[in-house]
Specification:
The protein has 10 helices and 18 strands. With 348 residues, it is of the alpha/beta class.
Length: 348
């Protein structure tokens, strides 16, 4: 969600005084206490009317009022509190950039394309994520690491989580090499994803359920990650394909989650019926570019998402998607609609 233009300091300047002739006497406004009671009464009536209309229509009318006042609406970026978790699927075209927000701490999973790195940085700044507790590289393809060096340069990063490069040839791309150089230059702690490891984010935890498979296909280096936080659980498998999903099914005792990022941008190489049955998400989001050359998200996974009853969103049509859970309901906000929708709450 692009940041709103800031108001000038001190508002928009003082109003010019009213013209008045000599000896002009201000009119009395009556008893101040009475005026205050009348004002409070009107505010209470207004609040009651809005709440009744919201219940009748199912529309989050308070969001519109907040926006009209120049305030961020509920479910928009940087709204996650201690008792809730937000996951931001940032619209950066045909690539992945997913921001987990919990109790003032942030984890960024992948960093999209180099061409859209400025958009990513602008979003992180607007969301208040200038410091990242954890930066995750799921695998070294350019649509996942293109903006990573710039993130390392522009944000304070406590730790970087890398895929297990013992399972595939070490990449020789310039982009990957520059990321390693930046890590070394800044002496940032870099760890390898190992099944069973966990990383605290706020009062939640990011679990590594599986750590990829031996492969010549970098997609299958992607770890299977599960975030468990107050109000929301979330599974992200990067671009992991069927071998990664089968490995996770064999290893992990619990893959269930409220929220699932469609693997490999919603490709039919992933998102198998067996894996989706284990995750059982209420909400699925695909990160994909408009009119992309791959046809993502593919028809077959979309049909599987519908079969399990999951609400499906996609960044090419919905723009940035922010999903927030507070333990009672799951709220989905989309940039293109500029408003949120409550999904209710079912057990994952």
């Amino acid at each position: 969600m692009p940041p709103r233009p800031p108001r000038p300091q001190g508002g928009y300047g003082p109003r010019a005084p009213r013209a008045g002739g000599p000896g002009r006497v201000p009119r009395s406004g009556g008893d101040p206490a009475r005026r205050l009671l009348i004002l409070l009464g009107l505010l209470l009536l207004f609040a009651l009317a809005v709440s009744l209309l919201e219940k009748a229509t199912g529309q989050p009318l308070w969001d519109e009022l907040y926006q009209a006042a120049g305030l961020p609406a509920a479910g928009s970026p940087a709204q996650g509190g201690a008792g809730e978790t937000s996951v931001h699927f940032i619209d950066i075209g045909q690539g992945d950039a997913v921001l987990i927000e919990q109790d003032g701490e942030f984890c960024l999973i992948d960093a999209g394309l180099r061409d859209t790195q400025d958009d990513l940085i602008a979003y992180l700044e607007a969301a208040g994520a200038s410091r990242l507790r954890l930066l995750v590289m799921t695998h070294p393809h350019s649509d996942h690491i293109g903006g990573m060096r710039e993130v390392l340069r522009r944000c304070t990063v406590d730790e970087v989580l890398l895929p297990d490069f013992d399972k595939a040839p070490l990449p020789a791309s310039t982009g990957f090499t520059r990321i390693l150089e930046e890590l070394e230059a800044q002496q940032i702690l870099a760890s390898t994803a190992r099944a069973g490891d966990s990383y605290p984010i706020g009062t939640g935890v990011l679990q590594v359920l599986a750590d990829g498979v031996e492969t010549e296909n970098y997609n299958d280096l992607s770890p299977v990650l599960r975030f468990v936080g107050p109000g929301l659980t979330f599974v992200d498998t990067g671009d992991g394909e069927q071998p990664v999903e089968q490995d996770a099914l064999a290893r992990a005792a619990d893959l269930s989650a409220d929220l699932y990022k469609a693997a490999h941008h919603g490709s039919n190489t992933s998102n198998t019926a067996e894996f989706l049955a284990a995750v059982r998400p209420q909400v699925v989001v695909a990160c994909c570019g408009q009119d992309n050359a791959y046809g993502h998200p593919h028809r077959e996974p979309r049909e599987r998402f519908a079969q399990i009853g999951a609400a499906f969103y996609r960044t090419d049509q919905d723009g940035t998607v922010v999903v927030t859970g507070n333990g009672r309901e799951i709220w989905v906000w989309t940039a293109n609609e500029g408003r949120g929708q409550s999904m209710g709450r079912d057990a994952a």
